[in-house]
């Protein structure tokens, strides 16, 4: 950005200037785009340092281009822990927890044998059993290990299962363990009052995240993270090289997010979420989520009315887990049949569904979440599934 545009290269406003200029919550109803853009110009831009200015000579430049922009369009710290050998640290999650949990543990230096993925089953709708967590912690303590992290999930990837936050939070508190809540998918639904029951107990968590790009119109990536005690992150990750020193950092007058993550640079992800909240309004976003949940309920009704299919586990949000039922109790052949049905349906190119495995059963997943999905798309999807399922249903003994 050229200086002739009238903007200083280095922002001239004081830290915290924006706090009093913004409302406490998102608007319930949409606001005009012009009003939003005026706010961007008057409130946001004055707080920016213009890294693309030809007069920017401070750090290594972060280059950009029209081509690059178009390409993007297309497409713990515990002080106890600080004095402890990594081989003693143990983490807990369920066998339904997202695979990135294991990856994050390995990156963090946790030994693979110290990652406890506790077994779930249909009796808890694949939620993490608190009794199993407490038993595992007690056993590890007796062996001289140090339990320090529990990852609970609200809306697992496989079946949108919900871990019971209230008892898990009490366990974490009793043992002085950090509890994180991964609400990447279903946390978005909690903007609707009727779904907030699924995060009861979140007040006992130390951190929680959602993926606003999953269900709140904020295109990838946009993952808000809340931390109860920010200094746990800061103390673990802060670095203070001379070339990054500035007056306000020494006076603690600004939150410096370089100390909240591994990388130094950060994209301005919050801007797109702010724009979504302004241009759609909270009530429209709630209705958008409710529509998807109702469409999933509509599909679930189709499944329930066909004796050749079954809904496998409780539907909480907009994911339906279902399958062709076994014949004569033969689960192996049933798994094979459902696997073939999935491949056949997806090979048509007309719809795309996915699968998971729950309690050894091959399960089909129907997840409603695309912004343009309407009832006619759900009805057509069921027609296609039924059409191709008939090939397997009418096979004698498979």
From TrEMBL:
It holds the Pfam family Pyridoxal_deC. SUPFAM superfamilies: PLP-dependent transferases (SSF53383). GO terms for cellular component: cytoplasm. It comes from the Eukaryota. GO terms for biological process: amino acid metabolic process; carboxylic acid metabolic process. The keyword rRNA processing does not apply. PANTHER family: GROUP II PYRIDOXAL-5-PHOSPHATE DECARBOXYLASE, TYROSINE DECARBOXYLASE 2. It comes from Brassica carinata (Ethiopian mustard). This is Tyrosine decarboxylase.
């Amino acid at each position: 950005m050229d200086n002739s545009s009238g903007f200083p290269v280095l922002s001239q406003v004081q830290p915290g200037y924006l706090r009093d200029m913004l409302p406490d919550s998102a608007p319930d109803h949409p606001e005009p785009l012009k009003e939003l853009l005026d706010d961007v110009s008057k409130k946001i831009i004055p707080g920016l340092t213009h890294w693309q200015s030809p007069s920017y000579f401070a750090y290594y430049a972060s280059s950009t281009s029209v081509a690059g922009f178009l390409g993007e369009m297309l497409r713990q710290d515990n002080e106890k822990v600080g004095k402890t050998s990594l081989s003693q640290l143990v983490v807990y999650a369920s066998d339904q927890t997202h695979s990135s949990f294991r990856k994050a543990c390995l990156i963090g230096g946790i030994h693979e044998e110290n990652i406890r993925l506790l077994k779930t089953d249909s009796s808890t709708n694949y939620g993490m059993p608190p009794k199993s967590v407490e038993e595992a912690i007690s056993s590890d303590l007796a062996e001289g290990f140090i339990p320090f992290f529990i990852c609970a999930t609200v809306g697992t990837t496989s079946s949108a299962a919900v871990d019971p936050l209230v008892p898990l939070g009490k366990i974490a508190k009793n043992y002085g363990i950090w509890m994180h809540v991964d609400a990447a998918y279903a946390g978005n639904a909690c903007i609707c009052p009727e779904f907030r029951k699924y995060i009861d107990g979140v007040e006992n968590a130390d951190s929680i995240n959602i993926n606003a790009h999953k269900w709140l119109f904020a295109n990838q990536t946009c993952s808000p993270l809340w931390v109860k005690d920010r200094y746990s992150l800061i103390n673990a990750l802060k670095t203070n090289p001379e070339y990054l020193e500035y007056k306000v950092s020494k006076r603690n007058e600004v939150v410096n997010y370089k100390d909240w993550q591994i990388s130094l640079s950060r994209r301005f992800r919050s801007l797109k979420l702010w724009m979504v909240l302004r241009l759609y309004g909270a009530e429209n976003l709630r209705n958008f989520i409710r529509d998807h949940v109702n469409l999933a309920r509509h599909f679930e009704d189709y499944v329930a009315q066909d004796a050749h299919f079954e809904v496998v586990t409780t539907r909480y949000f907009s994911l339906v887990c279902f399958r062709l039922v076994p014949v004569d109790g033969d689960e192996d052949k049933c798994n094979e049949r459902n696997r073939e049905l999935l491949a056949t349906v997806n090979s048509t190119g007309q719809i795309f569904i996915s699968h998971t495995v729950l309690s050894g059963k091959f399960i089909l997943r129907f997840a409603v979440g695309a912004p343009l999905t309407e009832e006619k798309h759900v009805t057509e999807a069921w027609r296609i599934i039924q059409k191709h399922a008939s090939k397997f249903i009418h096979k004698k003994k498979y």
